[in-house]
Amino acid sequence: MRQPMVRLVRLGRVPYTEVLALQEQWLRQLQTEPDTEARPRIEVGALLLSEPAAPVYTAGLRGGLTPEEAVRLRALGAEVRATGRGGLATFHGPGQLLCHPVLDLRRLGLRLRTHVAALEACAVRLCELQGLPAARARPPPYTGVWLGELKICAIGVRCGRHITSHGLALNCCTDLTWFEHIVPCGLVGTGVTSLSKELQRYVTVDEVMPPFLEAFKETYKCTLTSEDSLN
């Protein structure tokens, strides 16, 4: 039996708005063009990978930032955006791996909660491959991947008509001081960390990309295809 195909789209370091725009493009395609020759049934969506080019704070469906807080954060030099993902406020910036899978869960045979657990499993596996075997997922409201009481990977997704968007943000060499200006994900009493901080060396997004892709393929039992491989 052939594995489902997921289109791999590597954006590199780009503005967060570009990631959102491409995500919306894929959402429209999946929602309005089912089972066409251009997108055969075996293809279930796209995996958008990027690194934010500049600091941005995002609020989820449950809010997380007041208008006054948004003004304060913009004064720091960051962008502030409301998004349609689940959860509260978080930070995205350089040194962070952003993974936005835009997937038709029906074609993968997954439920939303299974998809969230799969994203957590990808991040846990990556941490293990990098030499951090203590990384683990925790039950809600502590969604994400943790090392003790420190979150290394945040997860927030959206799902409409069985199509997912948004995903995970894994701190590689992120400037963690940006998190000090908010309560990340609304979880009082917890902190954040990064691969670089835990491993005591500089770990870039480019370095973790290959093992992350392997973890994604193993977890989702899919084949990743690039634009070039489809020509």
User: In percent terms, what proportion of residues is strand?
Assistant: 25-35%
Shape from CA axes?
A: globular
Number of strands: 12
Compute the average pLDDT: 90
What is the straight-line distance between the termini?
Answer: 23 Å
The radius of gyration is 17 Å
The string of secondary-structure elements, in order, is EHEEHEEEHHEEEEEHHEH
What structural class should be given to the helix and strand makeup? alpha/beta
Q: What is the helical fraction, as a range of percent?
A: 25-40%
* Largest sheet geometry: 9 strands, mixed
Separate helix tally: 7
Low-confidence residue ranges = none
Would you summarize the structure shown here?
The chain is of the alpha/beta class. It has seven helices and twelve strands.
SSE order and pairing:
Layout: E1 5-14, H1 16-32, E2 43-52, E3 56-59, H2 67-75, E4 79-82, E5 90-92, E6 96-103, H3 105-108, H4 112-129, E7 136-137, E8 145-147, E9 150-160, E10 163-171, E11 191-192, H5 195-199, H6 205-220, E12 223-225, H7 227-230
Parallel strand pairs: 1-2, 1-12, 3-4, 9-11
Antiparallel strand pairs: 2-6, 3-5, 6-10, 7-8, 8-9, 9-10
Helix pairs in contact: 4-6
What this model shows, in words?
The chain has helices at 16-32, 67-75, 105-108, 112-129, 195-199, 205-220, 227-230, and strands spanning 5-14, 43-52, 56-59, 79-82, 90-92, 96-103, 136-137, 145-147, 150-160, 163-171, 191-192, 223-225. The protein is α/β, with parallel strands linked by helices and 231 residues long. Strands 1, 2, 6, 7, 8, 9, 10, 11 and 12 form a nine-stranded mixed β-sheet that branches. Strands 4-3-5 form a three-stranded mixed β-sheet, with helices on one face.
